User: Fold Methyltransferase type 11 domain-containing protein from Salvia splendens.
Amino acid sequence: MWMEGICIGGWGSHVYARAHLATSSPTHPIKPALALAIGEYATNSLCPRGRPRRNNMSVRAASTAPDALRKGIAEFYDESSGVWEDIWGDHMHHGFYDPASDVSISDHRAAQIRMIDQSLAFASLSDEPNQKPKSIVDVGCGIGGSSRYLARKFGAKCKGITLSPVQAQRAQQLADAQGLNAQVSFQVADALNQPFPDGQFDLVWSMESGEHMPDKKKFVNELVRVAAPGGTIIIVTWCHRNLSPSEESLRPEEKNLLDRICRAFYLPEWCSTADYVSLLTSLSMEDVKSADWSDNVAPFWPAVIKSALTWKGITSLLTSGWKTIRGALVMPLMIQGYNKGLIKFAIITCRKPNTP
Assistant:
């Protein structure tokens, strides 16, 4: 999880009963029996659904209005981002690990950088001088970790957007302190209505923010709109499993588990990786491809748990506010979802055609 996207997934597991979590490991995940819901909360549910082999997507009515959802997301990150930064640093997303690795607390920041580099490699993005991106948008930028890393890596100009005023301000402070104020800028803006002209960015980057978008079709359309001809789009996000050809929807028990996560994390209804692929294909994007990196992020949970079992982790969480605590308490459900194969950590990339 993760920014306006997320990094919720990472932060949320910070607090869970010490006696239960201390025994988890990448090779011995927390058992579903331990992954109990810790409460019921209110939010919305909205997202395209459909069969993976058919472009048969529908939208379910939300129980919370879009304005209320945006407000909830903004307040969640206003409240929790400082806690995350204090414990985990400025990259608000999962790390990328070898599936069987034994994760220590000390290597998670390197794994978060590896997540960025692996995403760029998967998209076949070149850092050759005449091919590297010169303009980047970070959609759901959090406190700007990806923006600053990408700007330095490519020598590019980068604009980050988030719904959280606290995040935008902190992201700019960090950029200024690192001497990147001429390259990187941040603002409060809605990913579904980006304040940029058509075709502005060589790289459109969305790291763990898509899960917050109530209208996935509009989200993808905006990513495509602001991408320059020949530009690359990278989406890294939480999805539910792909549906089989005989399924119209997830099973009731699966919907129930995801709904409980949504209520705590200010998420709309989830969609599948296949849904994203279908949307991008329908817009005539080229080189559309996807991968399931769930195994590569699984070790992240034990690392987060270990970080929570410190005085700093516990006190930071307890002083952060109810929204942050509420998100933390449902993290066992995220682990349960991964263990059941219901939740997928997906990357989807494509290239915008050079000509219409």
About this structure: The radius of gyration is 19 Å. DSSP finds 14 helices and seven strands in the chain. The chain has a mean pLDDT of 78. Residues 11 and 136 are 26 Å apart (CA to CA).
